[in-house]
Design brief:
The protein is α/β, with parallel strands linked by helices and about 300 residues long. About 30% of the residues lie in helices and about 20% in strands.
Amino acid sequence: MLEWSDFPADFVKWKLNPTGCRLSIEQLGENVYALVSSIPGVDNAGFVVGREGVLVIDAHISVAMAKQIQERVREVTDQPIRYLVNTNYHADHTFGNCAFPMETLVIQQRETAARTRYFEHEREFMLPTVGSDPRIFEGVSYRAPDIVFDDRLSIDLGGQAVELHWFGPANTPGDTIVYAPGARAAWTGNVTVGSFGLCLESDAPSYLAMISRFVQTLDVERLVSGHAPVSDRAVLGNYLLYFSEVTQEVKRALSAGWSLEETLKRSRLPDVYRLPESDPRTVFTEGRHSYNVRRTYLSLAGQGPFA
């Protein structure tokens, strides 16, 4: 499991405090909706409605936010919420599970399910991301998944199909893509989080392979990120290019016999991936790139994930 002591000094912690956050409804297609956070970086979610019920994507970080998700659903339909899918195991995607009705079936990919049981560790790890305010987690308790899948799971909501896909590790070991084929829309969790991704628990070659399988398998037009504005499929091409470049750069560094420190010094983030200074996510980009290079160097060198 992750520990903050494992992270390099220039890595900026996520800012996930949902206080004051409002989720707005953005329709992506017939009966397909994104829930978009009013606070940049704080989690988005979503839901899909069929004749026989609703499927919700991600439960957010707190009881209050999970209840707000259900309130947004009720603004659209009175159909029962039959399914709740977690796109990864992190607290900001799963801690709201406990606030959904018991008849709502919680679905997780196998790697995600293996990690959500470490509930107390995750709460302590994520506390700094909410300003070390324990009140955010009041009333939260562990809720185990009802359905666990491996590579793919298809769900029929009654005239509305939803597909769950695992294409391999990227940000986390169990990253799940939730795909509504009728709307050509996909929820990506932490896989797409801005101008380039964070291989938090993988490396650049693994991330590249995951995105490649994603692109080859799904016909997607709209992407709902867990932590960034709704985007189009062009972001996937950017991710393929970025992780290909990081992979090749680190391989060249290893072939040249560079140390990790020398590789980090020489591996500058290309301008094309930089955000405007006014963008609140700018503070994360340099540390994220450095982290990706570090993870990839240590992985390809066979030295383990962290320095």
